[in-house]
Structure formats: C-alpha cells, structure tokens
Amino acid sequence: MTWPDRQLRCRFICLLLIGSFHVVSAQAVASGPSTPPVFNEKELFTYRAKGRGGAAGQVFLRASSGKAVTQAGASIYLIPMVSYTRHWFDKNVRDYSCPSKSSEPPMTQGSPTECLRAVMGQLLTDKRLIPYLRTTRANPTGHFWFTKVPAGRYYVVSPLEGSGGAHQDERAIGMAWLTIDLEADEKATNLVVTDCKSSLC
C-alpha cells in the first residue's frame, strides 16, 4: 500500500469515528431532558423558612382583542427554582401546549381547563414539594401579594381559566408565568405575570 493510499484510508477511518461519536452524543442529549431529575430536598432547604421578602404584582392573559384578561380568585404559586421544578417548568409551562380555546381539537387531557389542571396537578400532588410552595389568590383586578418570602430564585405561575367579560374576544385560558430572583429582605413590586407571548416578558 502506497503512502497516499494509507493517508486516504486513515482519513476515512477518522471520519467514520467522528461521525459515530456525533450520533451517540446526539442520542444522549436527546434522551437526557425527558428523564426527570431526582428530587433533592437539600436544594429546597432554604426555601422552607419564613423570610422577610415579598413579591407583588398583577397576573393576566392577553385576549385576542389585546385586552388584559384577569380572573378574580385565580391561584398564584410561588415555586422555588431547583432542578426538580425546573424540569417540570420547562416541559409544561415554558413550552405550554394546552389549547387556548375550547373550539380547538381536544388534547389527551380533554378541555383547555382540564389540561391546565393536569399541568398543575403534576406538581401539586407531589407531597414532598408541598412544604416549599407558597400560594395566594388574585383579587378582581388580578393583583396579588406574597409576604414572608425567603431569598432565592422562584417561578411565579398562575393557571387562568377565566374571562374578562361576556364577549368571546375578552376571554382567555392559559398559563401566566414569570421568573424572579429575590435578595434577602427584598420586596419585589409591580411584577407583570402573563403568558409571555406578548412583549411584556
């Protein structure tokens, strides 16, 4: 075998090895995110105590008319941002896939309202997480307040199933959310919690 033939053969083998490496690594990356991380209570330890911080703002969705749609009494959750909750958030909230109108074809969860409840149920039925969650309700204008919050990173999440008026263009169903980073004793105010499809996020 001549020297040029050896070089060509060596290059061919190298290309095959590099190609197979990319296939294996791509499969590993693709399968990684679907596996939920192990629940690690140590990550949540600092979120259990009462703090001196706070968070306040307004939660709403944008109707097709552009109007802000609020829901009196809507539940708003303050969820610690750790690897376990991040997986749930990225899968179910950030890439929210429930239908926004009941006229759309139903998903496996059924109606948009049932879909919202199923998304939140995945998190709220985990008894290990309950001691670290904080919940409040929106007033008729969508405003909310959290008090005695310890420092940390949080998701503010609210499933909204309501309407802002009798007309169909004033109705909206969806998930409003925001991420916040609270320093010790910080009072975050005027937070805008919405569906993040508008320019407000």
Describe the structure.
Helices cover 29% and strands 26% of the residues. A hairpin with a 5-residue loop joins strand 2 (61-62) and strand 3. It has a 4-stranded antiparallel sheet with strand order 5-4-7-8, with helices on one face. The chain has helices at residues 3-31, 41-44, 83-94, 112-124; strands spanning 53-59, 61-62, 68-69, 75-80, 134-137, 143-149, 152-160, 174-182, 187-193. It has one domain: Sandwich (Immunoglobulin-like), CATH 2.60.40.1120.
Q: How would you summarize this macromolecular structure in one to three sentences?
A:
With 201 residues, the chain is α+β, with helices and mostly antiparallel strands. It has helices spanning 3-31, 41-44, 83-94, 112-124, and strands at 53-59, 61-62, 68-69, 75-80, 134-137, 143-149, 152-160, 174-182, 187-193. It has a 4-stranded antiparallel beta sheet with strand order 5-4-7-8, covered by helices on one side.
List its traits.
201 residues; alpha+beta; three-stranded mixed beta sheet; 4 helices; 9 strands; 29% helix
Q: For the terminal residues, how far apart are their CA atoms?
A: 64 Å
What number of structural domains do the residues give?
Answer: 1
What oligomeric state is this?
Answer: single chain
Q: pLDDT under 50 segments (min length 5)?
A: 14-18, 20-32, 102-109
Q: What is the general shape? A: globular
State the major sheet.
4 strands, antiparallel
Radius of gyration: 23 Å
**CATH architect. name:** Sandwich
Q: Average pLDDT across residues?
A: 79
CATH fold assignment: Immunoglobulin-like
**What is the count of β-strands?**
9
Strand content: 25-35%
